[in-house]
Structures are given as structure tokens and as C-alpha cells.
Amino acid sequence: MNFEFTNMLNHAKSFLTAVSKAILILGIAVLAIPAVAAAPSWVATWAASPQPVWGTDFLFPTNLPTVLHDQTVRQVARISLGGERFRIVLSNAYGNQPITVGKTTLAPTEKGSAIAADSLRTVTFAGRETATILPGASLFSDPVALPIPALTQVTVSFHLPNATPISTFHWDGRQTGWIVPGDQSTAPALKLKEGSVQSTTARPLLAGIQVETKQAARAIVVIGDSITDGATASLDQDHRWPDFLATRLAPHNVAVINAGISGARLLSDGMGANALARLDRDVLAQPGAQSVIVMLGINDISWPGTAFAPHSPRPTLDALTAGYRQLAEQVRARGLRVIGATLTPFEGALPGTPLDNYYQPAKDALRQQVNDWIRHSGAFDAVIDFDAVLRNPAHPARLAARFDSGDRLHPGDEGNRAMAEAVDLKALLPDLAASR
């Protein structure tokens, strides 16, 4: 028995020794395998939320022809994050027929309609230089290899060879674009012959630009109305409050996507679809989105009774708060953080215009109730108190004079800058350094 036991013990020791050697060899082999770098990913770096084109009976002109034919559209956009490869997104969201897109190019902007010709790139779609955008659909381009730094203006030009009814656009781009005859998509500078060119601040078809990033990158999306869209920000200067916020966040490798639409509302359609109807497309579908800022509601409160909605009833506080809660829950269901923003003062808004009854004391009382709910309800992961930032301390129902654009509703450039500087970056993304 002793001999057999000793023999068994020796066999066990030999087995364990062999296993140990195997583990050691395997460990060395594992350590010898180089670390696999994170795969590049696409992140939204700029966007303009699509809107349906309205008729001639609306209060504002569209600033676009109803049909484009054998014309080139050239638009300028400032990206948030830079990179080595980009792709563009075109939208026919509100069209009822296919749109043929011809020659399309991407290039850094030089000045005005001029581009950096030596960096011009042709944009293709599934390897072809022409493509079709189906009714109600979007069209992604192929990746375009073009190194561009963060916070750079880029120019997208596309030729529309066929008669193209314009049904989808973004009304207030706060950036000059051009519509010129023929195919000038590769022109270093457009031939701006008098009578043959139209400049416009509207954005037909162009809805987004995305960047491929090697390092992990994220995006903040702001869903809002004209205050976010930048209605009175200086033209061509990228002075909307999300632009200033993008400047703060770019060093953190975080993009800011402006999903503002002038005239937008939380609960009702207007100059665009209501917030919940466009949430998936304009916010949740943006690649890399991690947090959402919600700044909506002032048009819900103030449109009723004006020329915009003369017979519409004003929403109740309960209806508004139910809308905010539903939006917040849908954002969180996608694993994103949601931040509420208070509504800014507007006493005396839009004087001398057909909308000079936009403000009324009862409307302001509802705004203050909404703000109190936003601050204290706990419906949001964090709150940005833009009301406190922009109001006149001596007259809290009004914008402070230094922040007022002059229409007593929209902040000017300095107001936009103050809004962006008031955002606690850690409230947007808690893992960021506590920077203000």
C-alpha cells in the first residue's frame, strides 16, 4: 500500500508540474500578444435638424426657390471635432419623391464661398458620384479621407442635375450659403454673376456631418428652439450658444450637436415637428450621443394667441411637465443622460412686429411655474439655470441689457457666450474634469 501511495503521489506531482509549465507558457504567450487598439468609431460632429418647407401664406419666407434645376448648392458648416475621415448626411425627410444628387464635394472653407482647392475631395455614395435620396429617407456618403482640425469651417457643395422640388430644409442656418447655375461643385470660388446667384441662410438637404475618431469620442445634443438655433447670433460667426459650448468641449474630445429649430415646440408641431416626434431622428440617432440638453417650452407658452396660432389654447402646466417627463424617460431608455434648462425671460418680446403680443403676464407666470418645476422636480439628471444667467436682477422678467439681442427674447452674442460659460461640464458628463 505504501509503495502504491508513493507512486500515485509522484504521478500527481508530475501532473501538477506539467500543468504549471503549461500555464506559465500560456501566460507568456498571452502577454506576448499585442494589445488590440479600439476600433475607430463614427461620431456626429455637426447637424442641422430637418424641417418641412412651408407655403407662401406663412409669416416668414423660406428663403429658397421651390424648385432647383441644374444648380449647385454650396453650404458652410463648422465642425465640433476634427479627424482624418468624414461623411455627410443628406435628408429628404419631408419629400414625396426621390431626389437625384449629382457631383458632391467637401473641402475646408477659406473665405465666403471660396474653398481650399488643394484639399478638395469628391464625395461618393456607394462608390458612385451620383445617388438617389428616397422619399422620407436620409443618405449617408462614403467616408472621405481629409484631415481637418476641430472647430474648422468646412464647405459642402452638391449639384442637383434634375428638377428638384425642395421639401426638406433647415430654415435658419445663421450661415450664408449659395445657389448657382450649373455644376460648380469643384469650383475653388463660385462664379457669382449678378442675377444668376442666390445667397441664402437656409440649408436645403444637408442634415449632418460625422467624423471617424480613433480615440473614444462623445457628443452632447441640444434639442431646442430659436434660442438654441441662434436666431439673432451674428451671421457667419458661429456665435450660437452651442457653438461656444463646442469650443469648451472640443479639448475633451466631445462634440456639441445643435438640434435647435426656430419656432420649435415641446408639445405641438410648428416650424418643425414637436420634440417627441423628432427625438429619435434629431437626437437619439446621432452617433456618439451621451447626454441631451433640453431647452424647449417658451413657444408652447407664447405662440397661442399670436399670429402663429391665433386660436390655439395655451397648454397647462400639467401638460408641459408630462411632455418633459416623457422626453426624459425616452432619453434615459437609450442610456443617455438628460439635462433640463430653464426658460429665459421675455417681457416685452418682439416689439413693433406682428408678434408683439408674444409676451403677456399670464404667459410669464406659466414660464416661472415651469422653471420652478424644472429646478425642483428631479425629472432631469441635472439642471442648467439659464433664466438665472440671463435675467436682469433689477427686473427678473426681462433679459439683462448686456445679453439682449434687442428683441427682448433672444440673447445676442454675449448672452450666448454667457449661457455656454454657465454650463457645468461635469453636469453634462460626470467623468469629465470639473471644468467651468
TrEMBL record:
Cross-referenced InterPro entries: GDSL, GDSL_Rv0518-like, SGNH_hydro_sf
Species of the source: Chania multitudinisentens RB-25
Family matches, as Pfam families: Lipase_GDSL
Protein name per UniProt: Lipase
SUPFAM superfamilies found in the cross-reference section: SGNH hydrolase (SSF52266)
PANTHER family in alphabetical order: GDSL-LIKE LIPASE/ACYLHYDROLASE, PUTATIVE (AFU_ORTHOLOGUE AFUA_2G00820)-RELATED, GDSL-LIKE LIPASE_ACYLHYDROLASE, PUTATIVE (AFU_ORTHOLOGUE AFUA_2G00820)-RELATED
GO molecular function, one term: hydrolase activity, acting on ester bonds
